[in-house]
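Supplementary Methods. Inverse-folding protocol.

Structures were first reduced to a discrete structure-token string of length 121. This string, shown here, constituted the complete conditioning input.
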């Protein structure tokens, strides 16, 4: 039976791109709030909050005092590094003994078949 009165909202998850990260940096420099930035980019405030946390880097001033600042390049680099690590992992390294065994058996079988074939000629 099909349900026609579905009340759940369709979610469309999108990753932030480099341009949007640049917009976040510009709006942060203007002193805008996270909620304002989220509305401008049509994103959830939590997305903006996580991105600012991801791209915030501790910097060192010339008088050796530190401060934290958001850099879109840092956020993009963290995103790309984490994105590279997601997804299914290769199983090949875990089955190398089996592959060697199967290869050995196939080569033995090939030798037997070639001997039988050469005997027919």
């Amino acid at each position: 039976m099909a349900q026609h009165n579905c009340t759940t909202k369709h979610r469309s998850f999108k990753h932030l791109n480099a341009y949007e990260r640049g917009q976040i940096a510009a709006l942060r420099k203007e002193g805008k709030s996270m909620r304002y930035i989220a509305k401008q980019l049509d994103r959830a405030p939590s997305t903006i909050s996580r991105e600012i946390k991801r791209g915030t880097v501790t910097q060192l001033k010339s008088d050796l005092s530190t401060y934290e600042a958001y850099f879109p390049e840092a956020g993009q680099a963290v995103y790309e590094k984490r994105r590279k690590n997601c997804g299914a992992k290769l199983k090949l390294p875990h089955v190398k003994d089996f592959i060697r065994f199967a290869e050995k058996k196939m080569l033995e079988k090939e030798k037997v078949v070639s001997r039988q074939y050469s005997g027919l000629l």
